[in-house]
Amino acid sequence: MLRATANVAGRYLGRAAMADGLQQNQGVPVVSCRRQELALSAPMMPPHLPSGLPQPPHDIRTNVADALRGFFRDRASLVEPVGTEFRSAVTHLEDFVLRGGKRVRPTFAWVGWLGAGGDVDAPGADNVLSACASLELIQACALIHDDIIDNSRTRRGFPTIHVEFARQHRDQGWGGDPESFGEAAGILIGDLALAWADDMFHGSGIGTEAHQRALPVWAAMRTEVLGGQLLDIVVESSGDGSHGSALKINRFKTAAYTVERPLHLGAAIAGADDALIAAYRTFGADIGIAFQLRDDLLGVFGDPATTGKPSGDDLRAGKRTALLAYALETADANQPDVAATLRSAVGTELSEADVDSLRSLIISLGAVERVEKQIADLTERALNALDASSARPGTKDALHAMALAVTRRTY
Amino acid sequence: MLRATANVAGRYLGRAAMADGLQQNQGVPVVSCRRQELALSAPMMPPHLPSGLPQPPHDIRTNVADALRGFFRDRASLVEPVGTEFRSAVTHLEDFVLRGGKRVRPTFAWVGWLGAGGDVDAPGADNVLSACASLELIQACALIHDDIIDNSRTRRGFPTIHVEFARQHRDQGWGGDPESFGEAAGILIGDLALAWADDMFHGSGIGTEAHQRALPVWAAMRTEVLGGQLLDIVVESSGDGSHGSALKINRFKTAAYTVERPLHLGAAIAGADDALIAAYRTFGADIGIAFQLRDDLLGVFGDPATTGKPSGDDLRAGKRTALLAYALETADANQPDVAATLRSAVGTELSEADVDSLRSLIISLGAVERVEKQIADLTERALNALDASSARPGTKDALHAMALAVTRRTY
């Protein structure tokens, strides 16, 4: 145990990174190897699906962007009559949506469809792609509204929507409070993204039977992510530090929304049988939770140069992660004074040195090791469910690669 | 002109009301009679459809409430796994939706369907009712988010959603800012209402062809109302006082969303021909704008006892209405000092005496008369379009009554 902790500390406090001349607080987590597959170097989310898988004409990210661009183009006839103010807001939404993101959800939905027998050469494939791409508009709403809720100033290197509109208000010298105006615009533009996600999905032309099969999945996904977000804000305010709550948030806010339901959606569109859907859902829930646990580690130990977020951001924000819950549970049981230190520190303005101390504390309490073990166990269970399923072999390869990409990323 | 203005002043500053022992500033507007139909005493939005029209088993408002209640009941299996915090939020949303409102939009949609040949005795009638009832969930989102944007404290005699959640936060002694928590909860609960509106509509089971016909109408309606709201916040901040902007906001934020598109939606579900749809849309756009113009008058001259809003609320809020635009245009042309007085006063903390003075000013500038004439002209044009249409006779009666109800109400 002690030796293991020391090893973890060595990795997480940047021994390897320091050898490369980096600062200690920029240490990049290196994944422990629990099975052969996990020892592979972590791939990025593949822009091209692996070669074993049927390829769409271009790569999936380009196709998703094209589908979104086409949707926005088709909306012009609805937007134009309302005038320049609305057109400007829609342009901001389009820029936000097309600016990027990893297209994780459309990719999982598309791969889920392919794995359940979807045929990229069939005439309806473009419609399925459009249905998958609509997930990015839900995500746009989630991000725009989250940025208001979290009072975030930047997103993907640009001002967040509400900050951008507050700036416009200020630049124009308009009446009233710029921040309130920015928030109002952000709320409405997020609403528009959510309404348009539905329009794009239900208007994708995937066919009546596929649409009927997909409806309950679409409903569950949006309900679950909003449920998870509501639970998240309650837990953050109430200070509920249990790992049960943290994992429940991961389950609904992240796993169901990011992996499980997108895969399920693709499978439902393809008309997959119950066994494959069950395997996808197990895979998706487990990988999704592992994805969030990795995110939690990066929020405390990630390198700002690769995560794009300030170092130790989650500690300053007081985010109630499973990582923190594990640390607090161990401390409560064995070192109540350490628990008190931890509780009083998180969620406050912390110096770099404070963040470093808290990192050491979290490691010494075994929380990092526990999270890494959980990520590895979840990934193993997910891959076993996938391997035993009837998903096409090429899809299994793709999902293997994606599972490792999202659970072992450094950004 | 002078005599007309004096007459208007007599009505609007409560000469009749004073004869009933009411205070001058509580004067209730009395509608000038431009055609025989308008001389009828203004009916309330009919809880029962007029007897000439096929009656659903109960009245439309009861049916809408039942459909919504059933939808919330069916959602329990999705909500339950996320836990008590989410269930509590959903209960607040359900209470909000079932607490009331006039069900204007579902009623217009339902009547539009009936008038285009919808058969209340056919097996699919319940599905159509469910599709119509889903409009109340869009409205729930619009109100919950609007209340955040406008920082409104009460709605229908209860605390607004964001105020209620701020109170819970305060009562529990949670960490962080109660107001921010309340806003976050309000944003997410509004999002949930919007997502569920789509689920309820698309899952209503109205049949594939009806659904395909209704899709573009559903899309247009939600886009237009959000476009109108965005235009509204820009115009309010920029101080754009033109009546063109005010009427454009009325057109998209109110008319399209409240009357035109709901009627169009019902007609599309019923498979109406283009001519009837065009007539419905003319009727809906005109009555919808007239509805908003009446609202603008009530916002300045309404009796708090019947409107439920403080007297002269729109003047204090600085709402950029067509009424105010007309007053400013006339003043700009003839009495620049009066225009300056008006501009500097609206949108500030006004005493009752200030509000009374502004009312007199607005009347003396002919703005009330102009708005009343516009309401009457729009109503006349709307009723002419309706009369000339192929809508069922019973529906025409119902829409006549509803047109008068919404353009001549005192609340």
From TrEMBL, chains A, B:
Protein name from the UniProt record: Geranylgeranyl diphosphate synthase type I
Catalytic activity, EC: 2.5.1.1, 2.5.1.10, 2.5.1.29
Organism of derivation: Hoyosella altamirensis
PANTHER family given in the database record: GERANYLGERANYL PYROPHOSPHATE SYNTHASE, SHORT CHAIN ISOPRENYL DIPHOSPHATE SYNTHASE
Pathway(s): Isoprenoid biosynthesis
SUPFAM superfamilies reported in the protein's UniProt record: Terpenoid synthases
One of the record's GO molecular function terms: metal ion binding
Tagged with keyword Magnesium: yes
